[in-house]
């Protein structure tokens, strides 16, 4: 059943791509499914409201938000980018397999702040293969500086450095996992520790972007964050 479901998903996405390619001169909005829900964050305010508005501005994307993991699987065939911000479980094995099939089909995956945690001990493949690592701790909420370390489509138009108040995640790459390419780092004002803040997961098929920023208004409402998010979705959708 797992193989059949994955094949059906791949065939549906290929058909959708063929339809889009038949209208090469027509610019279409990127179709995004944003998944939220869980603990320690106001998902409805900052992801459902603020990030949806950021992505839909100027017609860049059409975004559907859900906080119900059971709705993910049937929607994957109709989207270009899956944007995971949730730290609640995705317990259904078929949905987990379908997420991997989605990325294996060359689709885009954007992983937000809460989704970069080691949330699910019973799904180690998620962190190892799709995230390339994860976080098990963070600084106390407060000010820190983000520095762009690489020129990339995701960092285009973003200041070389900027400050914000947020949770500085102690993101650590997994040496046995998918390699990451760090595009920006974060450094606390009270220590010399530096951690990846924006990065590409060098998954062999799909395009994956990790964004460790995003606790509340002081990240979601500032221009550098919004530019990074829009760039991430654009890059992941190509």
UniProtKB/TrEMBL annotation:
Residues 50-236 form the ThuA-like domain. Keywords: Signal. Coiled coil: none annotated. Residues 1-20 form the signal peptide. The keyword Signal applies. It comes from the Bacteria. Pfam families: ThuA (PF06283). This is ThuA-like domain-containing protein. It comes from Dyadobacter beijingensis.
């Amino acid at each position: 059943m797992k193989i059949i479901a994955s094949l059906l998903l791949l065939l549906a996405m290929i058909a959708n791509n063929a339809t889009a390619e038949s209208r090469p001169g027509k610019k279409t909005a990127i179709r995004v499914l944003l998944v939220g829900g869980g603990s320690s964050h106001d998902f409805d305010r900052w992801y459902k409201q603020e990030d949806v508005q950021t992505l839909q501005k100027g017609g860049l994307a059409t975004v559907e938000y859900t906080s119900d993991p059971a709705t993910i699987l049937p929607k994957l065939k109709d989207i270009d980018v899956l944007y995971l911000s949730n730290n609640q479980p995705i317990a259904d094995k078929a949905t987990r397999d379908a997420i991997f099939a989605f990325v294996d089909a060359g689709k885009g995956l954007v992983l937000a702040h809460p989704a970069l945690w080691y949330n699910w001990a019973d799904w180690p493949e998620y962190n190892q293969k799709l995230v390339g690592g994860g976080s098990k701790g963070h600084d106390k909420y407060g000010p820190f500086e983000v520095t762009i370390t690489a020129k990339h489509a995701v960092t285009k138009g973003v200041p070389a450095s900027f400050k914000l108040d947020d949770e500085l995640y102690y993101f650590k790459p997994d040496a046995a996992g998918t390699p990451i390419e760090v595009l920006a780092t974060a450094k606390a004002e009270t220590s010399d520790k530096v951690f990846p803040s924006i990065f590409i997961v060098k998954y062999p098929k799909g395009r994956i972007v990790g964004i460790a920023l995003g606790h509340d208004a002081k990240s979601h409402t500032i221009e550098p964050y919004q530019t990074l998010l829009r760039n991430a979705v654009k890059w992941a959708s190509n």
